[in-house]
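Protein in question filed below.

…
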Amino acid sequence: MTGFSNKITRIVVSLYLSLFALSSVHPGVFAQQASLRVSVKDQTGKPLAAAKIDVLRNGIIVNTAITNDKGEAEIIKLAVGAYDITASKEQFEPLTESSIELKSSTPLIIEFVLPPKASLTESLTVQAGSGNAIEKTSSTPAELQRTTVKELPNRPATVTDTLPLLPGVVRSPQGEIKISGSGENRSALIVNSADVTDPATGQFGLTVPVDSVETISVFKTPYLAQYGRFSAGVVSVETRRGGDKWNFELNDPLPEFRIFSGQLRGIREASPRIVFNGPLIANKLYLSEGLEYDLQKRPVRTLAFPVNETKQESFNSFTQLDYLFSPTHTLTGTLHVAPRRMAFANLDFFNPQPVTPNFNSRDYTGTLIDRLTLGTSLLESAVAVKQATGDVYGQGSDEMTLTPIVNRGNYYSQQNRNSSRIEWLETFSLAPFKAFGDHNLRFGSSIARTNNDGEFRARPVNIVDAQDRLLRRIEFVGGSPYDRTDLETSFFAQDHWVLHPQFSVDFGVRFERQGITETMRVAPRIGLAWTPFKNQQTVLRGGFGLFYDRVPLNVYAFDKYPEQRVTTFDGDGNIVAVQQFANITDRVEKTLKPFIFGKDKVGNFAPYSSTWSGEVEHPLTDSLRIRANYLQSNSQGVITLIPKVVQERDAFVLSGNGRTRYRQLELTTRYTFTQGQAFFSYVRSHSEGDINEFTNYLGNFPFPVMRPNFFTRLSSDLPNRFLAWGSVKLPSKIRISPIIEYRNGFPYSSFDAAQNYVGTPNAERYPNFFSADARVSKDFRLNKEYSIRLAVSGFNLTNHFNPTSVHPNIAEPQYKLFFGNYKRRFRLDFDFLF
C-alpha cells in the first residue's frame, strides 16, 4: 500500500502544480466576457428581496440592479475590469466587496449577508471583504458555514461533529477530535472569544449546537498573538444573533427506528432540534435559541443484538440575547447548558457491556460581552463562567479481567470530578493609522481562575492468558480526594502592517503565566502575505511562531491517585515479583530557552510547539480557487506518564520531557457555481512522538496497564487523506449533498497475553478506508409561511469494507483478523421550516 499511496500523492501534487502553473503563465486561457450574479440574505439565511445592488468603477456607478424574491440579481454585459460591488437595503447595514476582478463569461457569484442596523459585527468597517488579499491576515483559517454543513448526510448536530469535514482534522476511533495529529487537550476551543474547554481535562466536551452557529473557523497556524493556550490548533466559533423578523425551524422531529430481522425493535436514534430567533424589542433586544435533544443507540457490528448498543442521551441548549444601547454600543449574553449521559461507553467486541463504563457529565457556560466603539476604535470586554462535572463508574463491582480474546468483569475505575473557570477578557482594537504603511494595532489581556476537585478510585485488575492462567494482578493502594486551584494571566499585542499594497506583515507577542506551574511563557509570532504579481491574484503566505499548551488541572491531581501494586505470576500460580509504583510528578530541568521563565519546582511544565508554514493561493477562474500549504511543527515539553525506576524505587513518573513532530502538505480546492459549491482537499501528513501522553491515564476512561514509552508514529497518523463534499441545487427544489472520503487506515499495536507490546507500537494499520455518502432533499411549500423538507440519506453507498476492529493479540487464533464493517444503509428524515 505504501507504493500505491506514494503514487496517489505524486499524481495529486502534480495535478495541483500543473493547474497552478498553467493559470499563472496563461491567465488569458480562462478570460472571456464579464457578468455578475449577486445573492443577498439576512443573518438568519432568508433571501432579501428588493435589495439594491450598485456596481461601481473608479467610484462611479456604472450599473444598478434589484434582487428578486429569491434575493438574487444578475448583471450582464459588463466590461472586463475591477469593480466595487455594494448591496444595500433599508434597515440593514450596506456591505461592499472591493476590487472585484470581472474577467470571465462564467458569472462571478457574490453572496452578501446583511446585518441589521447597528449590527454586532466586530469589524470597524462595513466592508464584507476586500479583493486585495494583502489587506487580510496572513493566518488563513479553514471555515465552515452553518447553512452549508446542515445539508450534509451526517447531519452534524454540534460543532465537533462538523470538524472532520476540514483537512487536517480527523476523529479517532475512540471519538476524540485530532487537529494536526494531536488530541483536544492541545487545542483551544473558543466561542465568541471565550475559552470553553474543560479546565480539568482540556477536552471539548459537548459543544454548541450547530443550529446556533454562524461560522466555524479552524486555525492550524494562527500567527495572531490574540490566540493562546494551545499548540496544535484553534477552533473559533461565532454564534448567530436574532434578526429583525422571527424565524422558526423544527429539524428531525421523528425518530429513526431500529429494524432487525425484518421486525421493528424500538427507537435507534432521535434528535429533534428546535431553532427560533427574532426581536424581543424591535431594534433593541434580540433573542436566538437553539435546543436539541439527542438519543442515540448506536449498534456495534462486532456484537450480537440486543447487547450490542452503546447509549447516549443529551440535552443541548444555547441561548443568546443581544441588546443594542446605540449604534456604537452593544451587549451580548449567552448561556450554554449541556447535560449528557452515556451508557456502555467504548463498547466493542473485546469489551462487552458489563466491562464498559458509564459517563455522566453536566456542562454550563455563560458569557457577557460588551462592545463599545470609541470613534473608530473598538473596546471589547467579556466575562465568562464555566462549570463542568464528570462522573465515571462501572456496571457493577466485580473485578476487571483482561484476556487475549474478550475481557470480563466490570470496569475498574470510578471518578467524580467538578471543575470550573471564571475569566475576564479585555481587548482594544486601535483605530487604523499610517506610519510607513497602514497599521492595525490590537491589545488584549485576560485573567482566569480555575478549579478542579474530585476523587479517583479503583478496584483490582487481573490479566490472564488464553488458558485463563493468572499472569498479573494490579491492586490500587491509597489515594485521596484532590482539590486544585490555578490562576492564569495573559497579555498580547499585535499589529497588522500593510507596508505596500502587495505586502503585509502580522507580528506580535503573547505573554502567558500559569500560576500552578509557576512559569511565564513568551510567544513571539510573525506572518507574511505577498502578492508578487500586479493583478494581485496569487497570494504567498508564510510565518513562524511559538505556541504554548495550557496544562490541564488533572495533571496536578495525579499525586492523589491510588498507587498501583503489581504482582507478577509465572502461569502456575507462583509469584515472580511484587512491585508498588509510586506516583511521582517530575520537574523540568532548566534550559537556555529564552522564552520560558519558571522556578525549579515539581510540575513546572511548559509544553510548547515551534511551528512554521508556507502557503500559495491562486484563483484558476472566478469560481475555482486552489490553495497549497506546507506545515511543520515540533513540540517539546509534552507531558508523559512513564514507568521507570527513581532512586531504586518503582514509579510512574509524570514528566515534561516528551516530544512530537508533525508534517503536513495540504492541497485544497473550492469550486462555486450557480447551483452550489464543492470542496476538495488532499492531505499528506506524518505524525510521530512519545505515545505515553498523560491523557491515557488521566482522562475520562483510563486504561489500567501502564506500558513503556516509545517514540514512534502516533495513533492519529494518516499519511494520505482525500476528502470531497458539497451541495448542488437541482430543478424542482431538489438538493443533493455528497461526502466522499478516502484515506489510509489508522495505526494499531500488537500485544501478547500479558498485555505487553509486541514489536513497535502502532506499526500495523487498518485497511484503507473509503466511504461515499449522500443526502437528497426536496422542499415542499405548504403555504406562504410554512415549508417541509423531506430527505433521504445513504451511507457507504459502495458497500466498501471498512472494518472497525482487529484482533491485535498474538495469543488468540484470529490474530490480525479485521472485522466489524458497517454496510450500506439509508435514513429518512424531514424538517419543518417556518
Notes: The CA atoms of residues 650 and 824 lie 51 Å apart.
